# Entry
Amino acid sequence: YKSLLSNSDHPLETTYFDDFTRASRDELEWWKLAALSKRLNKRMIGASDGFDVSSPDWDLKITIYGLVSRLFIKGLREKVRRGMRGAARRGTCLGKLSLGFTRRAHRDQNGNVVYGSDGQSIKEPCIDPATKPFLLLLYELFVERNWTTYKIVQHFNKTKVDGWDGWTERAIKQLLWSPASIGVFIWNRTRREYDYDAEKWVVVKNPRAAWEVYYDRNLAIVPTDKWRAARRKLAEMRRNSPLTGRKRSRNQISATTLFSGTLFCEYCGEELKLNRSVGKYKQMACLNGTFHAR
# Structure
């Protein structure tokens, strides 16, 4: 909407909201939106709350609306989290399940389907007979056959495991590390917070005391010893990786050449960068070596 508002090819004169609090869940975005409309001399009106960005008290109304909306959203978020915490303790489904699992209707002791307040049946995780062999194959290839995660990714994409050809090494490592394979489901490991300095949402790890752990031995697919062997192997790979503990460089975020961000000096561990970048004589080198340092 802000792109259209700034585009002179779209002659927008006035924008109507049901009420101005529907513009965003973040009051900072309200200020940015209202300031943009004021700068472009475009009217913005709330149909039900009487907000008008061209009125003299528009900034006071944004402050009041922001306070009321923040209190409402904060209370609603706490209610939702209480409900999700209860669902995690009961072992019902929260979000997407990993490979090898699916969901089914939750039943009480008498075998009757349990319904929620919305009239929909409550779901619980169960083993998926269609994808269970793929999860067992993953641990067999990684632990017993010593396949690399890159080779497993190629095999999974080639055979379209679970009807998906977008498998990545990160997804494979997460599956191998996840305790869901042995019937342990953990909720509330992380939370999202807004970083006002970087102006973006970031993921923050919660303390272990805040985790909700649900264990069901009937949902274990992989033997515990094989799962532990996979985690030990992943931990060893992480310790031996030259990228462990390093902050991602600019080349790793956006590579300059084919090998940028992937090659490191054997002696000092620094990233190899373009030392000569002229025409066909491009050359990768360790910049410490140029000065015979280290």
Q: What stands out?
A: The two ends are 54 Å apart (CA to CA).
